[in-house]
Design goal:
Strand content: 35-45%
GO biological process, one term: DNA damage response
Largest sheet: 5 strands, antiparallel
Number of strands: 10
Radius of gyration: 33 Å
Strand order of the largest sheet: 5-6-2-7-9
InterPro entries: 26kDa_periplasmic_antigen, SIMPL/DUF541
Keywords: Signal
Oligomer: single chain
Shape: rod-shaped
Pfam families: SIMPL
Number of helices: 4
CATH architecture of the largest domain: 2-Layer Sandwich
Protein name: Secreted protein
Structural class: alpha+beta
């Protein structure tokens, strides 16, 4: 009987201790805050699309191969690695679809190229070295940074530091002291830009020989943002 009573007493004490521990845990003082940061960077990976098209010069067709050679030479002369110029698409259309005669000169081909640049300072020279009538369109398709992973990491660190600073001054305001970190949750980390492709105005050479080029390109910066949720204990 004594053994049973001792066992029951021990079980009661264990349950009481567990209940007290659970109660202490639920009443632990803590503070939950979010922190965010934003880094603005200049892109160094710019993808520029150039579309070339065949056209009739009098009765002679200017071939796409000739236009492509002009573009390739212009890229190399500008000091850009030739592998930075790649073909995106090839298409064609019938110059005179109403004409039933099968004349090879009536089929006009077009070719889209993607040029990778670190900045746009040489694009005027490149486009100026290509037959203006053979340039169908040009535009910036996308841009990014070669150090994007580093910037994302930096943004996360700054967001966490901002959360700690916020929690610290809020706790100090009520005469308490901030304890250690209990939880960290990454809410959002991304890079965002104006995703609309920016058309680049290319003015063909006029009859008086005056050259054209890119007109007032408003190049936007990339913003890398990070946000974290944190929970700190209060001493």
């Amino acid at each position: 009987m004594k053994k049973v009573m001792l066992l029951a007493a021990g079980l009661f004490l264990a349950m009481t201790s567990f209940a007290q521990a659970a109660d202490n845990k639920t009443t632990e003082k803590k503070i939950e805050v979010t922190g965010s940061s934003e880094i603005e960077i200049t892109p160094d990976e710019i993808y520029f699309q150039i579309s070339l098209k065949e056209y009739m010069k009098g009765k002679t067709k200017v071939e796409i191969t000739a236009l492509e050679k002009q573009l390739q030479k212009a890229v190399i002369d500008a000091g850009i690695p030739k592998e930075n110029l790649t073909v995106e698409n090839v298409s064609g259309y019938n110059y005179d679809w109403m004409n039933k005669k099968k004349n090879p000169q009536e089929f006009m081909a077009s070719k889209q190229f993607r040029l990778k640049l670190s900045k746009l300072d040489k694009i005027n020279i490149i486009l100026g070295a290509v037959d203006a009538e053979g340039i169908e369109s040009t535009r910036i398709t996308s841009y990014s940074s070669s150090k994007m992973d580093e910037y994302r990491k930096e943004a996360k660190i700054k967001a966490l530091q901002a959360a700690k600073t916020k929690a610290d001054y809020m706790v100090n305001a009520i005469g308490e002291k901030l304890g250690g970190i209990l939880e960290i949750q990454e809410i959002n980390t991304d890079n965002y830009v104006d995703v609309r492709p920016m058309a680049v105005n290319y003015m063909a050479k006029s009859a008086d020989g005056m050259g054209g080029g890119i007109s007032d390109v408003d190049f936007k910066t990339i913003k890398v943002r990070a946000e974290v949720r944190t929970v700190f204990s209060i001493k």
